[in-house]
Amino acid sequence: MVVLAVLGAGCGNADPPPLDATSVVPLVADALLPGTTHLVTDVACDDSDRLGPMACTAVVSGVEVPVLVHPPGLDGRIRIESPAEVVTGADVADRVDQRLTTDTGVEARVTCMPDARVLRAGQAFDCRATDPDGREMPLVATLVDDAGSFRIDWRPVPGS
Question: How many CA atoms lie within 13 A of 57 on its CB side?
Answer without folding.
Answer: 6
